[in-house]
Amino acid sequence: MTFVISLNGLVYGVYETIDLVRLNLLIILFYNLERGNIELSCYEDLLDYLKSESFSEGTFYIPHFQTSIKQLDITIEDFKSEKNGSCPLEYIMNHINWRFMELEKKMEHDVRVKVTFPGENAKDHSLGEPYFTDWKYVDSKNHKTLTDSLRDYITAKIEVLEKRFKGRVHFGEVMYQNANEHNIQVWSANGVNWNLPEGNDIPGKYQAEEMKFQGPGVYGIVVTPLYGYHSLVPEEYEK
Prior knowledge:
four-stranded parallel beta sheet, 16% strand, 7 strands, alpha/beta, single chain, 2 domains, 7 helices
């Protein structure tokens, strides 16, 4: 967990432990007491919270504590810390799994539906390939492990489709002019352009440029974490 303390609307500090949050709140309180910005009774009241052995992130949400620190224009926010690239990879894989499930439904529903993936075959696909360098910014140390895992995961998903729907999974260059309700073109997308309202221009580069516009058969799958990865599946799927 990472904690952000803001003072007077500006970030005062970012801390990884409750003890550092406690220490810096004590410093802020003492600073305000010295300058007469806080009454002694309020200072001592807050001091009781901060010196308590049970002080934790749960204390932030106690109404009396919240009211007291707001009077000093102090806010505390907590965020889940992500130590390496495994966390964004899990989110992206979850999205990929859901998108492949949706592809299966479309192919089950209508035997005329065919799917084209970029690349030569299931093992030599290029779904995600253009964006693999993006993962260096997430975790430079484990970049290759992350992208190898992503590639293998997509390969496994394509192979499942090939076995279930023989003759209906194809490979090659994915293009907008080949996309329609019976010919799905699967392309490497990001968290911004993967599923726009129909008719919208698709921003981006690589395969996104070939797609041009969102429409029937234009089927983006997010493969990069750089444009966001926390809201890539519907709530009902999460449940």
